[in-house]
Amino acid sequence: MKKYVILVLLPILLSAESPKEILERSVRLFSHKNIRFLVHSTVERENGVQKRSFVVAKKNDARNSDLLIRFLAPSTLRCTTILTRKSGTMTQTYVYFPSLGRVRIIPKNKENKEAVGLGISYAELHDMSGTFLPIETIETETGELYKITKRKRPGCITVYLVEKNSKRLKKIETYENGRLKKEIVIDDIGNIGEEAMVLAWHIVDHDKKRILRFRVDKSTITSDISATLFKKNRLKRCSS
Fold first, then answer.
1. In terms of C-beta density within 10 A (0-12 exposed, 13-18 middle, 19 or more buried), how is residue 27 classed?
2. CB of 222 closer than 8 Å to CB of 36
3. How far apart are CA 64 and CA 62, in angstroms?
4. CB 140 within 8 Å of CB 2
5. Does 74 sit behind a cis peptide bond, omega within 30 degrees of 0 on the bond before it?
6. 7-65, pLDDT tens digit by residue?
7. One CATH from 2.50.20.10, 3.60.140.10, 1.10.10.10, 3.40.50.280 for 5-50+119-234
8. 39: how many CB neighbours lie within 10 A of its CB?
9. Which of 65, 77, 95, 132 could form a disulfide with 19 if both were Cys (CB 3.0 to 4.6 A apart)?
10. Where are the domains of the chain?
């Protein structure tokens, strides 16, 4: 395991960018604009491995951002769909559960629960709010990283490791009351057109004792997106 050495603590006022600005500019999960692609994933537990696949579609304009995730496999998750719509400072998340035959709104007090099938919470799909601590710069074998620490609520801390030069996100660690709960590791980043995009990542879930691995099927990446995908009243229409 790599060891990190802390070099210096940089006050926010002395940094060219604030911690939040650096994080918002970093290459993160599902941060690529106006795109559609297929993701293949596995969930590894002590008793076996389950394969999953889902479609991701993202649409952005000057003020609005829509993110849709629709599961294609396995059969127990097929057609389950998550839609996050952001307009200005307002965000709303909807989930279609085929077993219930209905679309549910995720209330704000439930957004910290895990988004079905993804290993991250609904809030982690869109929410960058929280109290940021001063940036630390740390040195690794491959170069310098920014260590950005955010307090979301009492006892809950998220640590982001971002490459200092490229601004590419390397890893996310979440802690609760000082205990490491989850690690999200970026395994591969590639260029799609003129933008960098996360192509592979894995999540180590210490609480549930599982590892979730994800890889984008590059052959499916397209900017050809139907606007009807993002309509709440069409989430029940299950197609890839």
1. buried
2. yes
3. 6
4. yes
5. yes
6. 333 333 344 678 888 888 886 777 777 899 999 999 999 999 999 999 999 998 877 88
7. 2.50.20.10
8. 22
9. 132
10. 5-50+119-234
Positions of E strands within 116-209: 131-132, 135-140, 143-153, 156-163, 169-176, 179-192, 195-205
- Judge whether 54 and 41 are in contact, CB under 8 Å: yes
Compute the residue count for the chain: 240
Q: Are 124 and 138 in contact (CB under 8 A)?
A: no
pTM: 0.86
The whole-angstrom separation of Cα 80 and Cα 86 is 20
pLDDT single digits (tens) 125-162: 877 788 999 999 999 888 899 999 999 888 999 999 99
Handedness of CA 61, 161, 56, 199 (dihedral sign): positive
Residues 127, 130, 134, CA angle at the centre, nearest 5°?
125
**Residue 221 carries which side chain, given as an amino acid letter?**
I
Q: How far is CA 29 from CA 38, 100, 172, 203, in A?
A: 14, 29, 11, 12
β pairing state of 135-140 and 143-153: antiparallel
